[in-house]
Amino acid sequence: MIGIVIDLLVAAFIGWCTGKIMGYHKGTIANIIIGIIGGTICSILLGLFGAHPDELLSSMTISIIGACIFVYVYRLVAK
Description:
Elements: H1 2-22, H2 28-48, H3 56-78
Helix pairs in contact: 1-2, 1-3, 2-3
């Protein structure tokens, strides 16, 4: 149970960082969803290249990059 709470807090932090970088502010729930999607996107992309970050900081940085990519693509499609 505590692991799920920690994962949600990390996802919220990733979404918050993405919001600051991309100027995209939609609320806490949206930040959590963006963080989860960002982590998933980069996990898939890095898995295709055979890379699997195992440190928390590198994993979070990569997830923020993935979330920024997601927000960028979302903005392109939503217009």
